[in-house]
Fold:
Amino acid sequence: MKLSEVGEIALLEQIKKQFSEKSKNILIGIGDDASVLKPFKKNLLVTTDMMIEGIHFDLRFITPFQLAFKLISVNISDIYAMGGQPDSILLNIALKKETKKEFFDDFFKGVRKALNFYKTKLIGGDISSTYENVYLSATVLGYCSKHITRKGARVGDKIYLTGNIGDSACGLELLKKIKKPFLIHIRSKINKQKKIFNRFFKKISWNIVEPLFIKHLMPEARCPEKFLNYATSMIDISDGLAIDLLRICNESKVGAKIYLDKIPLSKELRQVALFLKKNPLKFALSGGEDYELLFTAPAEKKIEAIHIGEITKSEKVIIDSYGRKKSLSLEGYQHFI
Ligand code: ADP
Ligand code: MG
Structure:
């Protein structure tokens, strides 16, 4: 059945049924003109991000379930990057009239999965029809005791990452070649997925690409809880290490030096990049959509994260294993391609 045959009222009713939950701080949730929340005793964080078909995603290789999970992850990642905890979400979606009802249902299954994963609640939103592309937007409310901005990095601080980078961009590169969805979130279908993949690429194994696909299609935002007491500045990697580190530098009015051989690259990324005849560092430095946290902390603190460099007065460089320096600029990373 198409959405045009179901109608807005029935769709809204379904959302209300599926997502009306009781919670101490939500006095009125889905179903009225606005939701009513009890204010937190902490600082309120608010963030919003949209995802547009053709710009941010391609429905030829991401499923509605994965898309919903990713939309929520991307937004939660911004709350985490401020040092906060998510509380509740508003979701705006615009779908074509001829979209199948199954698309809608699968999308909201993905919403449920993400809400459970991040322990948040859906408290409202909007739906609309659209003529061409799918438009999605989420707004997340969260709270924090102490917010961590991009502004606090100090000379001498160490620079850290919470995990490997470049995987998402490398996964995307493969998906663009295959243009088929992979149901990586359904374990029982994995053997079938392997077969589909091997029809396209015989020389790399599914086990190598699966983590890259997962990182691109269903990224998990990183909770910064362990670092809250130490981090002086923080950002989530959405546009690539180079751009996002420069954002911290610009806001904090400092420089940075990072070491090429400390940049965490997964073995899967290295293997697939070799296969694609691409430099894995290109994916790491300029790929983006990693949703790992990049943060700084005083050098003397013991931090359980991956140390990649130091904050400097003004110099912004990447240093290779021979000690050669290259400028860490948007053009800079291209020297390494
Ligand atoms: P209004 O006419 O006041 O804009 P709607 O008819 O659009 O209200 O929505 C009815 C209720 O359903 C509202 O509480 C709204 O927040 C909720 N809602 C609408 N779309 C969504 C959605 N995509 N996700 C969650 N809640 C939604
Ligand atoms: Mg409305």
